[in-house]
C-alpha cells in the first residue's frame, strides 16, 4: 500500500512539474501571438491560464493583453478587473506587477499624476530592486500614442537593466526603442533594437521595428530590407506585411501593396479589427474591390461609424459618387468631431464634384468647392484640391472665380507660385476680359519660365492689344518680336504654330508700315505672315494697300483659346514651343 501511495505521489509531482512547464511555455505562446497580432489566440491563452491557474502572474498577463489590443482597442475595464484579481490574491502583500498594471490603467485613463504617485510607491515598496517592476513601469509610458512620457520610460527601463545580472531580455531594449520612436529619435531607437537583436530572440518583431525606424526616417530601401528580413525570420509575422504594404503604397507600387495587405490579414486573424485594418490598407493601395468585399462582410455588424467613412471613400474612388457622399455625411454625423479628418471634407467635396446629375450640377459644384476649401483650410495635403476647384470653375466657364482660385493658390503657396500658376492666372484674366491684369501677370510668367516656354510672349502681346484696341504705339511689338526671335527652326516648321507666327509677323508688318514708314520691311513681314498662313486676309489687305489702297487699321482679334503649358491646368491646344 505504501508502495502504491509513493508511486502515486511521484506521479503527481511529475504531472505538476509538467503542468508548470506547460504553463510557462503557454505564457510565451500567448505573448508570441500578441506580438504577431493574433489577438483571438492570445486572448484564449491568457484566459485559460487565468482560469486553470489563477495566479498573480497569469492575471497580470491577462490584464497586459487588454492593454495591448490593436489600433486603440485597449480595454481598460477588463484590464483593471484582471489586475485587481491578481492583487486580491494576497491582501497583505499584493503582487507588485499587478499593482503596476492598475497604475497603468490609471495612467491610460488620463490620471498621470495619480499613476506617478502609485508607480513611485510600488518602487519604494520593492526597494527599487525589482527589475521587472521597473521595466513594466517604464513600458507603461510607451503604450499610448497620446498619453506617454518617453523620458520617464527610458529612466525606469534603464534602471531595470542596471539591476539585471543576466541581460538577456530583448523586451527591455524593445521598450526603450519604442520610447525613442515616440520622441522621434531614430538613432537611439536603432541602437536599442540592435542590442535586442544581438540576443537572438524575437527577430521578426525587432526587424519589423527596425524597418519602422528607417521608414519613419524616409530611408525606404533599408526599411524594405528590414521588413523582408522580418518575414524571412517568421513568415507568419503579420505586422511585417502590414508595414511592407504601407511602404509599397508610398512607392506607388499598388499591386504589391495590395498583395501584402492581404497577407497581413491572412497572417493575423480575421477579426473585425483586423479586417478594418486591411480595408484601410487595401483602400490606400487602390484595391477598392478587395477593400469593399471585406467591408461588406462586416458592415452590418460593425458598430464603429468608421465603416461609413471607408465605404464613402471607396465609392467615391470607384465613381459611385452620390452613394459616396451619402456615406461620408453619415460618418460625419455619427462620429465625434475629434474623429473627423481634414480628408473627410476633401473626399466629400470630391464626391459632390463627380456626381452625374445635370439638374443639380450647380448645387453639387458649389458643395464640392466649399468642402474642398474646408479640407485645404484644415491642412489636408493628400489630394490636389486647388486644381480640382480650378477645374470645376473652368468646366463651368466661371472665369472670374477661376481667377480668384488661382489668386488664392498663389497667395497661399510657400514658394510664391510657379510659372504655370501665373500663366493660368493670366489666362483666367484673359478669359474674363480683364486684359490689364492679364498683361501684368504674363510678365511674371515670362520671368519664371526663363524662355523655356515661349507662348506667354504671344499671350502678353495679345493682352496688350485687347487691353488697348486704339493703341497707336504698337506696344505689343516687343513681345511678338521676342516670340519670333527666340523660336527655333523646329518650332517654326511645326504647322501647329503657323497661325502664331503669322499673327506675329502681321502685327510687326503693321508697325513697320505705320510707325517706321518702312514699306520694304512691312512688305517683308507681310509676306512672312502669308508664308505661315496664306489665308491671313489682313496681311493680304496690307500688301494690297501698299499698291495704292489705304491700309487697314490694326485692330483686335478674337481672344485665343487657352494654350496651357505642360503641368498647367486647363484645356486647349498647346503650341509646340
Automatic annotation (TrEMBL):
Residues 540-577 are annotated as: Disordered. Keywords: Repeat, Signal, TPR repeat. Residues 1-24 form the signal peptide. It comes from Emticicia aquatica. Pfam families: ARM_TT21 (PF25058), TPR_2 (PF07719). The gene is lapB. The keyword Signal applies. This is Lipopolysaccharide assembly protein B. Residues 568-577 have a biased composition (Gly residues). TPR repeats lie at residues 204-237, 419-452. Residues 547-567 have a biased composition (Low complexity). InterPro entries: CellSynth/LPSAsmb/PSIAsmb, TPR-like_helical_dom_sf, TPR_2, TPR_rpt. PROSITE patterns: TPR.
